[in-house]
Amino acid sequence: MASSETVCCICALFFGGIFCTLIWTVTAKHTFQIDYENNCFKKDGESFRYISGSIHYSRVPRYYWKDRILKMYMLGLNAVHTYVPWNFHEVMPKKFVFDGDKDLEHFLQLANSTGLLVILRPGPFIDAEWDMGGLPAWILKKSNVVLRSSDPDYLAAVDQWMNVLLPKIRPFLYNNGGPIISLQLEDEYGSYFACDYDYLRHLVKLFRYHLGDEVILFSTDASSIHAVKCGTVDGLYATVDFGPTENITACFEVQRHFEPKGPLVNSELYTGWLDHWGEKHQVVATSIVTKALDTVLGLGANVNLYMLIGGTDFGYWNGANTPYAAQPTSYDYDAPLSEAGDLTDKYFAIRDVIRKLSALSEMLDVMCPSGPVKSVYPLNFVQLNQYFGFVLYRTSLPKDCSNPTSLSSPLNGVHDRAYITVDGVPQGVLERDKVLSINITGKAKATLDILVENQGRISVGRYINECKGLITNLTLGKDFLTGWTMYPLDIDEAVSRGLKEKSRKPSMSSRSSAFTAPAFYIGSFDIPSGIPDLPQDTFINFPDWAKGQIWINGFNLGRYWPARGPQITLYVPRHILSTSAPNNITVLELEKSPCDVKPCVVEFVDTPVLNATVSNIFPGRKLFVGLY
Fold it and tell me: Fewer CB atoms < 10 Å away: N or C end of the chain?
């Protein structure tokens, strides 16, 4: 169905990952599907991979929901997993509570407004080290009831609950304009003794009745053949869960036994572990978690980090295990966000892993509103109706390049400068007339992104009719690259719409310290009002930056390239500056950001530098503005 909505997200774009604050209104058809042919999810027709984290709204006070969700977003996640504990909302039969700390709909709205998708786990059984696995204790009044089965008494209670819950959820489905892209039925049912397929089929039918046929329903089980066999039925997409010390390839082979095609999914990659009273607090080394995450993502799999924040079992909600061992009040779980929402070393280490990825598709809808163009061979800028700026050329590596392999422009076909990444990892730069070949590494089918910059057309002479972009094909080793998807980027429009101060700085993981992936950096500064003769013309300097483009309040000041010179500063006319509101600075650094090793700042100076050879470059006054 078509839906009209306001989309709000916080992100900062980098060509190897994406994250900016954008607010826009769109009318579009929303779809989220399984693409069995290409072994991935498809979101609005484009390939999609989620990296999510578990947060249990029932373990975090509503007062902190926004804070925790924002911190999850800033980590680089694009989705959250959350359970719906039945007994949390229906403590007494037919007395349903959905307000205050139990306001599920508000939680879903917060996730949506922050730009995070939601994978919902409504049970009815959830485990989660929660009292009775989320099932209400009053159901035991039927002394012979068989829980988690097709027992009529149990199913009657389940139906009564789901008839209340699922209609609340339906408006939040992605195809209805909400954030929910999929729902998990039950939880690790294959590890339960009953192995009652009729029960699972009943749940599938119940969910389809209330939610329709478009939403993805899935199961999650431990990564063993027996567990998955008893845990899923037709109508559920089977996923697995496993810890960071497991044989990851073997675990996914279990999923492939049941789902030969479709996306690989680890629905619970454990970042820590649970505690019991009287036992030592459980911790999992950060290095173990990040190594596993890197491996999972390297396989192209979707992953949920369980937990991203554990939280607290307030009141009486803690669970217990067999043989009997009760869990404590804290559900800290040694998670990346502490019980109190503090950022841990594990948080930052996981962020660095995520930032290596190429997640460009999340922002290309904004940077390329007209959509991509596909061609066997690359098209030049004019053929793409792109007359200035940048085009992103994308294809896949047709073979394994574990050993360095030459990527070449044999006919000098890069006009004018191309920034190369493979699965988000920077490889180097091709430059017209100067650098016609570089060595790259990557696995077969890895995403090869080539961001080509038009540096300006010849203004006089017989060659004023030159073309820009990839005007001839590139070769990988001895093979011509084919199958290009090209994105003409309208960066000026995107910046004017609001790449604002809530962006986060991406980490530029590189196989070489010579380059970092192209990225936007955001900052702002205030000019006091009421002071005569402010603002004034000024100049901006880029200490330790290499090459890029800069905007102030949406005004494109032009290119900077202090790494090559001679010009160091750019002129800033006074009319673009404001005393009535913060002045926003957006820097697109293409080659080497200083921000990973020191505070990243730009300087406003009162003296221009147009010749880098002069000594004592900045004798006058300076104003520093930090970016991130």
Answer: N
